[in-house]
Amino acid sequence: MSKIVAVLLICTSLCVFVNTFPQNQGTRIIGGEVAPAGQFPWQAAIYVTTADGQYFCGGALVAPDWVLTAAQCVYNAIQFTIQLGSNSLKTSDENRLIVSTSLYTVHPDYNPQTLEHDIGLIKFHMPITYTDYVQKINMANMGQIFDGIGVTASGWGQTSDDNAELTDELNFVNLVIISNTECQITYGSQVKSGMVCAVGNYNEGICLGDTGSPIIKPGIKGEPLHVGIASFMSLNGCETAEPTGYTRTDVYHPWISNLPRVTLDKKTIKNARIIGGQVASPGQFPWQVAIYKNTTDGRFFCGGAIINEQWILTAAQCVYAATQLTIQLGSNQLQGSDDGRVTITSSTYFYEPRFDPTLGVAHDIALIKIEEPLTFTDYVQPIGWAYIGRLYPGKVVTASGWGQVSDADSTLENDLSYVEMTVFDQIECQAYYGSQLEDTMICTVGTTNQGTCYGDIGGVLVTKALDWLGDFTVAVAISSWMSQNGCESSDPKGFTRIDAYISWIVNTTRDN
Ligand SMILES: *[C@@H]1O[C@H](CO)[C@@H](O)[C@H](O)[C@H]1NC(C)=O
Ligand SMILES: *[C@@H]1O[C@H](CO)[C@@H](O)[C@H](O)[C@H]1NC(C)=O
Protein backbone atom coordinates (compact mmCIF):
# COMPACT_ATOMS: atom_id res chain seq x y z
CA MET A 1 0.00 0.00 0.00
CA SER A 2 1.26 3.46 -0.81
CA LYS A 3 1.43 6.06 1.86
CA ILE A 4 -0.35 9.31 1.25
CA VAL A 5 1.87 12.39 1.28
CA ALA A 6 0.88 15.99 1.20
CA VAL A 7 1.61 17.87 -1.99
CA LEU A 8 2.79 21.01 -0.26
CA LEU A 9 5.85 22.61 -1.83
CA ILE A 10 8.23 24.28 0.59
CA CYS A 11 9.74 27.40 -0.84
CA THR A 12 13.48 27.36 -0.61
CA SER A 13 15.31 29.39 -3.18
CA LEU A 14 13.01 27.65 -5.63
CA CYS A 15 9.87 29.54 -5.04
CA VAL A 16 10.15 33.20 -4.53
CA PHE A 17 7.88 36.03 -5.37
CA VAL A 18 6.85 36.86 -8.85
CA ASN A 19 9.67 39.10 -9.97
CA THR A 20 12.56 36.94 -8.95
CA PHE A 21 11.31 33.52 -9.97
CA PRO A 22 14.22 31.50 -11.41
CA GLN A 23 14.25 30.46 -15.04
CA ASN A 24 12.70 27.10 -15.68
CA GLN A 25 12.66 25.05 -18.84
CA GLY A 26 9.87 22.72 -17.72
CA THR A 27 6.54 22.82 -19.45
CA ARG A 28 4.00 20.91 -17.31
CA ILE A 29 2.22 19.36 -14.30
CA ILE A 30 3.07 15.75 -14.96
CA GLY A 31 2.06 14.89 -18.51
CA GLY A 32 0.22 18.17 -19.08
CA GLU A 33 0.07 21.07 -21.50
CA VAL A 34 0.61 24.81 -21.16
CA ALA A 35 -2.67 26.69 -20.70
CA PRO A 36 -3.54 29.60 -23.00
CA ALA A 37 -4.24 32.99 -21.36
CA GLY A 38 -7.74 33.18 -19.89
CA GLN A 39 -8.45 29.44 -20.02
CA PHE A 40 -8.47 29.10 -16.23
CA PRO A 41 -9.36 32.63 -15.05
CA TRP A 42 -10.19 31.39 -11.52
CA GLN A 43 -6.70 29.90 -11.02
CA ALA A 44 -4.77 31.53 -8.17
CA ALA A 45 -1.06 31.21 -7.32
CA ILE A 46 -0.63 31.46 -3.56
CA TYR A 47 2.60 32.28 -1.73
CA VAL A 48 2.09 31.40 1.91
CA THR A 49 4.25 32.68 4.77
CA THR A 50 4.19 30.80 8.07
CA ALA A 51 6.49 30.94 11.08
CA ASP A 52 8.33 27.92 9.55
CA GLY A 53 8.93 29.32 6.10
CA GLN A 54 7.30 29.94 2.76
CA TYR A 55 5.18 27.60 0.72
CA PHE A 56 3.61 27.64 -2.71
CA CYS A 57 0.08 26.56 -3.43
CA GLY A 58 -2.65 26.84 -5.98
CA GLY A 59 -6.25 27.87 -5.43
CA ALA A 60 -9.44 28.87 -7.17
CA LEU A 61 -11.40 32.12 -6.98
CA VAL A 62 -14.92 31.17 -5.91
CA ALA A 63 -16.22 34.68 -5.10
CA PRO A 64 -14.81 38.19 -5.65
CA ASP A 65 -13.16 38.03 -2.23
CA TRP A 66 -12.66 34.31 -1.54
CA VAL A 67 -10.10 31.77 -2.80
CA LEU A 68 -10.78 28.08 -2.21
CA THR A 69 -7.68 26.03 -1.48
CA ALA A 70 -6.40 23.17 0.67
CA ALA A 71 -6.25 23.41 4.47
CA GLN A 72 -2.52 22.58 4.15
CA CYS A 73 -2.09 25.91 2.38
CA VAL A 74 -3.69 28.08 5.06
CA TYR A 75 -2.97 26.17 8.27
CA ASN A 76 -0.89 28.39 10.61
CA ALA A 77 -0.42 30.98 7.87
CA ILE A 78 0.72 34.47 8.78
CA GLN A 79 0.40 36.05 5.36
CA PHE A 80 -0.66 35.26 1.80
CA THR A 81 0.37 36.90 -1.46
CA ILE A 82 -2.00 35.80 -4.20
CA GLN A 83 -1.63 36.20 -7.92
CA LEU A 84 -4.66 36.17 -10.19
CA GLY A 85 -5.19 36.91 -13.89
CA SER A 86 -1.92 35.58 -15.28
CA ASN A 87 -0.81 32.11 -16.35
CA SER A 88 2.79 33.11 -15.83
CA LEU A 89 4.38 33.33 -12.41
CA LYS A 90 7.13 35.70 -13.46
CA THR A 91 6.80 37.16 -16.95
CA SER A 92 5.37 40.66 -16.89
CA ASP A 93 1.66 40.58 -17.60
CA GLU A 94 -0.69 43.56 -17.50
CA ASN A 95 -3.57 41.28 -16.55
CA ARG A 96 -1.86 40.12 -13.37
CA LEU A 97 -3.46 41.11 -10.11
CA ILE A 98 -1.62 40.72 -6.80
CA VAL A 99 -3.52 40.68 -3.54
CA SER A 100 -2.12 40.36 -0.01
CA THR A 101 -4.11 39.25 2.96
CA SER A 102 -3.77 37.34 6.19
CA LEU A 103 -7.43 36.33 6.51
CA TYR A 104 -8.35 32.70 6.20
CA THR A 105 -10.56 30.00 7.54
CA VAL A 106 -9.65 26.34 7.79
CA HIS A 107 -12.03 23.39 8.16
CA PRO A 108 -12.43 22.85 11.92
CA ASP A 109 -11.79 19.07 11.62
CA TYR A 110 -8.75 19.31 9.37
CA ASN A 111 -6.13 16.75 10.34
CA PRO A 112 -2.62 17.55 9.08
CA GLN A 113 -1.52 13.92 9.59
CA THR A 114 -4.31 12.17 7.70
CA LEU A 115 -5.18 15.10 5.42
CA GLU A 116 -8.83 14.60 6.22
CA HIS A 117 -10.98 17.69 5.58
CA ASP A 118 -8.12 19.29 3.66
CA ILE A 119 -10.03 22.43 2.75
CA GLY A 120 -9.62 26.10 3.57
CA LEU A 121 -10.50 29.50 2.24
CA ILE A 122 -8.56 32.74 1.95
CA LYS A 123 -10.43 36.03 2.24
CA PHE A 124 -9.41 39.33 0.60
CA HIS A 125 -9.75 42.67 2.33
CA MET A 126 -11.84 43.95 -0.55
CA PRO A 127 -13.60 42.22 -3.42
CA ILE A 128 -11.65 42.24 -6.67
CA THR A 129 -13.16 43.24 -10.02
CA TYR A 130 -13.64 40.46 -12.55
CA THR A 131 -11.90 40.78 -15.93
CA ASP A 132 -11.49 38.45 -18.93
CA TYR A 133 -8.59 36.92 -17.02
CA VAL A 134 -9.99 36.97 -13.49
CA GLN A 135 -13.28 35.12 -12.98
CA LYS A 136 -14.80 32.98 -10.28
CA ILE A 137 -15.70 29.33 -10.72
CA ASN A 138 -18.85 27.72 -9.29
CA MET A 139 -18.52 24.82 -6.90
CA ALA A 140 -20.08 21.42 -7.61
CA ASN A 141 -23.06 20.30 -5.56
CA MET A 142 -23.74 16.79 -4.28
CA GLY A 143 -24.32 14.31 -7.10
CA GLN A 144 -22.13 16.08 -9.62
CA ILE A 145 -19.00 14.01 -9.01
CA PHE A 146 -19.02 10.32 -9.95
CA ASP A 147 -16.66 7.60 -11.18
CA GLY A 148 -15.52 7.69 -14.73
CA ILE A 149 -16.04 11.42 -15.38
CA GLY A 150 -13.32 13.38 -17.05
CA VAL A 151 -11.78 16.24 -15.08
CA THR A 152 -9.04 18.78 -15.73
CA ALA A 153 -6.31 19.63 -13.22
CA SER A 154 -4.32 22.86 -13.52
CA GLY A 155 -1.32 24.15 -11.61
CA TRP A 156 2.26 25.41 -11.53
CA GLY A 157 3.69 22.38 -9.69
CA GLN A 158 6.78 20.42 -10.61
CA THR A 159 6.71 18.75 -13.99
CA SER A 160 8.83 15.76 -12.98
CA ASP A 161 10.23 14.19 -9.83
CA ASP A 162 13.71 15.33 -10.83
CA ASN A 163 12.83 18.95 -11.43
CA ALA A 164 12.02 20.46 -8.05
CA GLU A 165 11.09 23.84 -9.42
CA LEU A 166 7.72 25.28 -10.18
CA THR A 167 6.93 25.87 -13.81
CA ASP A 168 6.53 29.45 -14.90
CA GLU A 169 3.50 28.72 -17.08
CA LEU A 170 0.24 27.29 -15.84
CA ASN A 171 -0.18 23.68 -16.98
CA PHE A 172 -3.25 21.49 -17.22
CA VAL A 173 -3.88 17.82 -17.66
CA ASN A 174 -6.97 15.65 -18.24
CA LEU A 175 -7.70 12.95 -15.69
CA VAL A 176 -10.51 10.52 -14.91
CA ILE A 177 -12.25 10.20 -11.52
CA ILE A 178 -12.06 6.72 -10.01
CA SER A 179 -14.16 5.29 -7.19
CA ASN A 180 -12.86 5.51 -3.64
CA THR A 181 -12.95 1.67 -3.55
CA GLU A 182 -10.56 1.55 -6.50
CA CYS A 183 -8.40 4.26 -4.93
CA GLN A 184 -8.25 2.22 -1.69
CA ILE A 185 -6.40 -0.51 -3.63
CA THR A 186 -3.48 1.90 -3.66
CA TYR A 187 -3.98 3.83 -0.43
CA GLY A 188 -6.13 1.56 1.79
CA SER A 189 -8.27 3.14 4.48
CA GLN A 190 -6.41 6.42 4.19
CA VAL A 191 -8.96 7.31 1.49
CA LYS A 192 -11.98 8.82 3.27
CA SER A 193 -15.41 9.85 2.03
CA GLY A 194 -14.45 13.51 1.80
CA MET A 195 -11.74 12.62 -0.70
CA VAL A 196 -11.80 11.70 -4.37
CA CYS A 197 -9.05 10.20 -6.55
CA ALA A 198 -8.17 10.61 -10.20
CA VAL A 199 -5.86 8.87 -12.66
CA GLY A 200 -4.38 9.70 -16.03
CA ASN A 201 -3.81 7.42 -19.01
CA TYR A 202 -0.26 6.93 -18.00
CA ASN A 203 1.33 8.88 -15.17
CA GLU A 204 -0.43 12.21 -15.55
CA GLY A 205 -1.38 14.08 -12.43
CA ILE A 206 -0.56 16.68 -9.86
CA CYS A 207 2.84 17.14 -8.23
CA LEU A 208 4.48 19.22 -5.52
CA GLY A 209 3.39 22.82 -5.88
CA ASP A 210 -0.08 21.96 -7.11
CA THR A 211 -1.64 21.62 -3.66
CA GLY A 212 -4.83 23.62 -3.38
CA SER A 213 -5.25 23.84 -7.15
CA PRO A 214 -8.64 22.89 -8.54
CA ILE A 215 -9.83 19.99 -10.62
CA ILE A 216 -12.81 20.97 -12.73
CA LYS A 217 -15.40 19.34 -14.96
CA PRO A 218 -17.97 20.73 -17.37
CA GLY A 219 -21.47 21.26 -15.92
CA ILE A 220 -24.77 20.53 -17.71
CA LYS A 221 -24.43 23.55 -19.97
CA GLY A 222 -20.72 23.05 -20.38
CA GLU A 223 -19.93 25.65 -17.71
CA PRO A 224 -16.87 24.82 -15.58
CA LEU A 225 -17.51 23.39 -12.12
CA HIS A 226 -14.99 23.06 -9.29
CA VAL A 227 -15.02 19.42 -8.18
CA GLY A 228 -11.86 18.90 -6.14
CA ILE A 229 -8.86 20.46 -4.40
CA ALA A 230 -5.42 18.93 -4.98
CA SER A 231 -4.43 17.35 -1.69
CA PHE A 232 -2.19 14.30 -1.83
CA MET A 233 -0.13 11.99 -3.98
CA SER A 234 1.78 8.76 -3.49
CA LEU A 235 4.99 8.62 -1.53
CA ASN A 236 6.43 6.98 -4.66
CA GLY A 237 6.53 10.36 -6.34
CA CYS A 238 4.62 12.32 -8.93
CA GLU A 239 5.64 10.25 -11.91
CA THR A 240 4.12 7.00 -10.75
CA ALA A 241 0.88 5.82 -12.32
CA GLU A 242 -0.76 5.80 -8.89
CA PRO A 243 -3.89 7.89 -8.40
CA THR A 244 -3.65 11.42 -7.04
CA GLY A 245 -5.95 12.63 -4.27
CA TYR A 246 -8.33 15.56 -3.94
CA THR A 247 -10.72 16.99 -1.39
CA ARG A 248 -14.27 16.63 -2.77
CA THR A 249 -15.89 20.01 -3.36
CA ASP A 250 -19.49 18.68 -3.20
CA VAL A 251 -19.10 17.30 0.33
CA TYR A 252 -17.88 20.65 1.65
CA HIS A 253 -20.13 22.94 -0.38
CA PRO A 254 -22.64 23.25 2.50
CA TRP A 255 -19.85 24.10 4.98
CA ILE A 256 -18.60 26.85 2.66
CA SER A 257 -22.10 28.21 2.04
CA ASN A 258 -22.76 28.47 5.75
CA LEU A 259 -19.54 30.24 6.64
CA PRO A 260 -20.03 33.57 8.30
CA ARG A 261 -18.85 36.39 6.10
CA VAL A 262 -15.61 36.46 8.02
CA THR A 263 -14.32 33.94 10.51
CA LEU A 264 -10.95 34.92 11.71
CA ASP A 265 -8.52 34.75 14.53
CA LYS A 266 -8.56 37.82 16.67
CA LYS A 267 -5.28 39.66 16.63
CA THR A 268 -3.97 41.73 19.47
CA ILE A 269 -3.53 45.37 18.76
CA LYS A 270 0.02 46.61 19.14
CA ASN A 271 0.94 50.24 19.27
CA ALA A 272 1.93 51.24 15.96
CA ARG A 273 6.68 53.47 9.98
CA ILE A 274 5.52 53.93 6.73
CA ILE A 275 5.80 50.66 4.83
CA GLY A 276 5.79 50.71 1.06
CA GLY A 277 5.82 54.51 0.90
CA GLN A 278 7.60 57.25 -1.01
CA VAL A 279 9.87 60.07 0.14
CA ALA A 280 7.97 63.34 0.53
CA SER A 281 9.05 66.53 -1.25
CA PRO A 282 9.82 69.72 0.73
CA GLY A 283 6.61 71.47 1.76
CA GLN A 284 4.37 68.56 0.73
CA PHE A 285 3.26 67.96 4.33
CA PRO A 286 3.88 71.36 6.00
CA TRP A 287 1.72 70.41 8.99
CA GLN A 288 3.90 67.38 9.87
CA VAL A 289 5.96 67.64 13.04
CA ALA A 290 8.39 65.25 14.74
CA ILE A 291 7.88 64.86 18.48
CA TYR A 292 10.50 63.57 20.92
CA LYS A 293 8.89 62.67 24.22
CA ASN A 294 11.10 62.50 27.31
CA THR A 295 9.79 60.44 30.21
CA THR A 296 11.43 59.02 33.32
CA ASP A 297 11.64 55.71 31.36
CA GLY A 298 13.37 57.03 28.27
CA ARG A 299 12.83 58.94 25.11
CA PHE A 300 10.18 58.11 22.49
CA PHE A 301 9.48 59.30 18.97
CA CYS A 302 6.15 60.30 17.44
CA GLY A 303 4.57 62.31 14.69
CA GLY A 304 2.02 65.08 15.00
CA ALA A 305 0.26 67.82 13.04
CA ILE A 306 0.04 71.60 13.39
CA ILE A 307 -3.62 72.62 13.60
CA ASN A 308 -3.11 76.33 14.37
CA GLU A 309 -0.44 78.82 15.59
CA GLN A 310 -0.40 77.37 19.09
CA TRP A 311 -1.58 73.77 18.93
CA ILE A 312 -0.22 70.42 17.75
CA LEU A 313 -2.55 67.45 17.37
CA THR A 314 -1.08 64.01 18.12
CA ALA A 315 -1.87 60.68 19.82
CA ALA A 316 -2.33 60.44 23.60
CA GLN A 317 0.46 57.81 23.69
CA CYS A 318 2.81 60.50 22.43
CA VAL A 319 2.36 62.80 25.43
CA TYR A 320 1.30 60.48 28.26
CA ALA A 321 3.76 60.67 31.19
CA ALA A 322 5.97 63.11 29.30
CA THR A 323 8.31 65.26 31.31
CA GLN A 324 9.16 67.27 28.26
CA LEU A 325 8.28 67.33 24.57
CA THR A 326 10.68 68.52 21.88
CA ILE A 327 8.95 69.37 18.62
CA GLN A 328 10.65 69.79 15.29
CA LEU A 329 8.82 71.38 12.39
CA GLY A 330 9.44 72.93 8.98
CA SER A 331 11.71 70.17 7.59
CA ASN A 332 11.32 66.71 6.05
CA GLN A 333 14.68 65.67 7.47
CA LEU A 334 15.03 64.65 11.09
CA GLN A 335 18.72 65.51 10.93
CA GLY A 336 20.39 67.97 8.65
CA SER A 337 21.06 71.64 8.23
CA ASP A 338 17.76 72.70 6.75
CA ASP A 339 17.08 76.48 7.16
CA GLY A 340 13.36 75.91 7.52
CA ARG A 341 13.77 73.71 10.58
CA VAL A 342 12.31 75.03 13.84
CA THR A 343 12.77 73.23 17.16
CA ILE A 344 10.65 74.10 20.16
CA THR A 345 9.94 72.52 23.50
CA SER A 346 6.74 72.28 25.50
CA SER A 347 5.49 70.58 28.59
CA THR A 348 1.91 71.77 28.26
CA TYR A 349 -0.18 68.94 26.91
CA PHE A 350 -3.71 67.56 27.23
CA TYR A 351 -4.84 64.06 26.41
CA GLU A 352 -8.41 62.86 26.15
CA PRO A 353 -9.43 62.22 29.77
CA ARG A 354 -10.65 58.67 29.04
CA PHE A 355 -7.28 57.58 27.59
CA ASP A 356 -5.66 54.95 29.82
CA PRO A 357 -2.65 53.09 28.43
CA THR A 358 -3.21 50.21 30.84
CA LEU A 359 -6.59 49.58 29.19
CA GLY A 360 -5.60 49.88 25.56
CA VAL A 361 -5.50 52.47 22.83
CA ALA A 362 -9.03 53.88 23.04
CA HIS A 363 -9.32 57.71 22.92
CA ASP A 364 -5.76 58.00 21.67
CA ILE A 365 -5.77 61.73 20.98
CA ALA A 366 -3.86 64.66 22.51
CA LEU A 367 -3.03 68.31 22.05
CA ILE A 368 0.28 70.04 22.73
CA LYS A 369 0.34 73.76 23.39
CA ILE A 370 3.13 75.95 22.03
CA GLU A 371 3.69 79.08 24.11
CA GLU A 372 5.18 81.29 21.41
CA PRO A 373 2.77 81.35 18.40
CA LEU A 374 4.25 79.82 15.24
CA THR A 375 5.13 81.85 12.16
CA PHE A 376 3.70 80.13 9.10
CA THR A 377 5.97 79.68 6.05
CA ASP A 378 5.85 77.46 2.95
CA TYR A 379 7.16 74.69 5.17
CA VAL A 380 5.15 75.36 8.32
CA GLN A 381 1.37 75.37 7.81
CA PRO A 382 -1.65 74.15 9.74
CA ILE A 383 -3.95 71.40 8.48
CA GLY A 384 -7.75 71.60 8.62
CA TRP A 385 -9.34 68.97 10.84
CA ALA A 386 -12.98 69.80 11.50
CA TYR A 387 -14.25 67.51 8.76
CA ILE A 388 -17.22 65.30 9.28
CA GLY A 389 -17.52 63.88 5.76
CA ARG A 390 -18.11 60.16 5.63
CA LEU A 391 -15.00 57.98 5.78
CA TYR A 392 -16.50 55.33 3.53
CA PRO A 393 -14.62 52.08 2.83
CA GLY A 394 -12.37 52.49 -0.17
CA LYS A 395 -11.81 56.23 0.36
CA VAL A 396 -8.18 57.08 -0.42
CA VAL A 397 -6.21 58.51 2.50
CA THR A 398 -2.54 59.47 2.93
CA ALA A 399 -0.31 58.90 5.97
CA SER A 400 3.11 60.49 6.49
CA GLY A 401 5.90 59.84 8.97
CA TRP A 402 9.50 58.95 9.74
CA GLY A 403 8.78 55.49 11.16
CA GLN A 404 10.55 52.25 10.34
CA VAL A 405 10.39 51.14 6.71
CA SER A 406 10.45 47.39 7.41
CA ASP A 407 9.99 45.10 10.38
CA ALA A 408 13.69 44.19 10.27
CA ASP A 409 14.93 47.79 10.46
CA SER A 410 14.00 49.39 13.75
CA THR A 411 15.63 52.76 13.14
CA LEU A 412 13.79 55.85 12.06
CA GLU A 413 14.13 57.16 8.55
CA ASN A 414 15.80 60.55 8.15
CA ASP A 415 13.47 61.56 5.33
CA LEU A 416 9.73 61.98 5.72
CA SER A 417 7.79 59.33 3.78
CA TYR A 418 4.14 59.04 2.83
CA VAL A 419 1.88 56.28 1.67
CA GLU A 420 -1.62 56.05 0.23
CA MET A 421 -4.07 53.60 1.68
CA THR A 422 -7.81 53.15 1.67
CA VAL A 423 -10.32 53.24 4.50
CA PHE A 424 -11.32 49.70 5.45
CA ASP A 425 -14.78 48.42 6.24
CA GLN A 426 -15.39 48.71 9.99
CA ILE A 427 -17.25 45.38 10.35
CA GLU A 428 -14.51 43.52 8.52
CA CYS A 429 -11.85 45.25 10.61
CA GLN A 430 -13.69 44.11 13.71
CA ALA A 431 -13.21 40.57 12.45
CA TYR A 432 -9.47 41.14 12.91
CA TYR A 433 -9.46 42.96 16.19
CA GLY A 434 -12.77 42.15 17.86
CA SER A 435 -14.04 44.50 20.53
CA GLN A 436 -10.69 46.25 20.71
CA LEU A 437 -11.89 48.15 17.66
CA GLU A 438 -14.14 50.97 18.79
CA ASP A 439 -16.40 53.28 16.80
CA THR A 440 -13.97 56.09 17.51
CA MET A 441 -11.31 54.28 15.47
CA ILE A 442 -10.91 53.55 11.78
CA CYS A 443 -8.80 51.02 9.94
CA THR A 444 -6.93 51.36 6.67
CA VAL A 445 -5.47 48.84 4.25
CA GLY A 446 -3.01 49.10 1.38
CA THR A 447 -3.22 47.16 -1.88
CA THR A 448 -0.45 44.97 -0.57
CA ASN A 449 1.01 45.71 2.82
CA GLN A 450 1.46 49.47 2.73
CA GLY A 451 0.88 51.35 5.91
CA THR A 452 2.15 52.93 9.07
CA CYS A 453 4.76 51.50 11.45
CA TYR A 454 6.48 52.35 14.71
CA GLY A 455 7.47 55.98 14.75
CA ASP A 456 4.52 57.11 12.65
CA ILE A 457 2.13 57.22 15.60
CA GLY A 458 0.62 60.59 16.26
CA GLY A 459 0.91 61.64 12.61
CA VAL A 460 -2.34 62.48 10.86
CA LEU A 461 -4.10 60.69 8.06
CA VAL A 462 -5.29 63.17 5.44
CA THR A 463 -7.75 62.98 2.60
CA LYS A 464 -9.02 65.17 -0.24
CA ALA A 465 -12.30 66.83 0.52
CA LEU A 466 -14.47 69.12 -1.52
CA ASP A 467 -16.55 72.13 -0.50
CA TRP A 468 -17.89 75.22 -2.22
CA LEU A 469 -14.41 76.76 -2.10
CA GLY A 470 -12.95 73.79 -3.99
CA ASP A 471 -10.60 70.94 -3.24
CA PHE A 472 -8.74 70.89 0.04
CA THR A 473 -6.75 68.46 2.15
CA VAL A 474 -8.05 67.70 5.60
CA ALA A 475 -6.88 65.59 8.55
CA VAL A 476 -9.35 62.85 9.40
CA ALA A 477 -7.56 60.55 11.83
CA ILE A 478 -4.45 60.07 13.96
CA SER A 479 -2.09 57.10 13.59
CA SER A 480 -2.53 54.95 16.69
CA TRP A 481 -1.88 51.20 16.40
CA MET A 482 -1.13 48.18 14.24
CA SER A 483 -1.42 44.40 14.47
CA GLN A 484 0.89 42.23 16.54
CA ASN A 485 1.96 40.59 13.26
CA GLY A 486 4.19 43.54 12.52
CA CYS A 487 4.18 46.48 10.18
CA GLU A 488 4.82 44.43 7.09
CA SER A 489 1.80 42.25 7.54
CA SER A 490 -1.19 43.24 5.45
CA ASP A 491 -3.36 43.47 8.56
CA PRO A 492 -5.27 46.74 8.75
CA LYS A 493 -3.62 49.69 10.52
CA GLY A 494 -5.52 51.62 13.18
CA PHE A 495 -6.29 55.29 13.64
CA THR A 496 -8.22 57.54 16.02
CA ARG A 497 -11.08 59.32 14.25
CA ILE A 498 -10.76 63.08 14.67
CA ASP A 499 -14.49 63.69 14.07
CA ALA A 500 -15.30 61.75 17.25
CA TYR A 501 -13.43 64.37 19.32
CA ILE A 502 -14.30 67.70 17.71
CA SER A 503 -15.88 69.21 20.80
CA TRP A 504 -12.99 68.04 23.00
CA ILE A 505 -10.51 69.72 20.60
CA VAL A 506 -12.59 72.91 20.46
CA ASN A 507 -12.96 73.09 24.25
CA THR A 508 -9.33 72.24 25.02
CA THR A 509 -7.89 74.79 22.60
CA ARG A 510 -10.44 77.44 23.75
CA ASP A 511 -10.03 76.94 27.51
CA ASN A 512 -6.25 76.64 27.77
C1 LIG B 1 15.47 64.19 26.80
O1 LIG B 1 16.15 62.98 26.54
C2 LIG B 1 17.34 63.12 25.78
C3 LIG B 1 17.89 61.73 25.52
O2 LIG B 1 17.77 60.94 26.63
C4 LIG B 1 18.35 64.00 26.53
O3 LIG B 1 19.54 64.19 25.73
C5 LIG B 1 17.67 65.34 26.80
O4 LIG B 1 18.55 66.15 27.60
C6 LIG B 1 16.36 65.14 27.55
N1 LIG B 1 15.71 66.44 27.75
C7 LIG B 1 15.26 66.80 28.93
C8 LIG B 1 14.68 68.15 29.02
O5 LIG B 1 15.30 66.07 29.87
C1 LIG C 1 -17.32 71.46 25.62
O1 LIG C 1 -17.81 72.59 26.30
C2 LIG C 1 -19.24 72.68 26.32
C3 LIG C 1 -19.59 73.97 27.07
O2 LIG C 1 -18.90 75.06 26.55
C4 LIG C 1 -19.84 71.49 27.01
O3 LIG C 1 -21.25 71.56 26.94
C5 LIG C 1 -19.39 70.22 26.33
O4 LIG C 1 -19.83 69.08 27.04
C6 LIG C 1 -17.86 70.19 26.27
N1 LIG C 1 -17.45 69.00 25.56
C7 LIG C 1 -16.49 68.22 25.98
C8 LIG C 1 -16.20 66.99 25.18
O5 LIG C 1 -15.83 68.46 26.98
UniProtKB/TrEMBL annotation:
GO molecular function, one term: serine-type endopeptidase activity
SMART domains given in the database record: Tryp_SPc (SM00020)
Signal peptide from the UniProt entry: 1-20
Protein name: Peptidase S1 domain-containing protein
Domain of life: Eukaryota
InterPro entries reported for this sequence: CLIP_Serine_Protease, Peptidase_S1_PA, Peptidase_S1_PA_chymotrypsin, Peptidase_S1A, Trypsin_dom
Keyword check for Transcription: no
Domain Peptidase S1 residue range list: 29-261, 274-510
The species this protein was found in: Zophobas morio
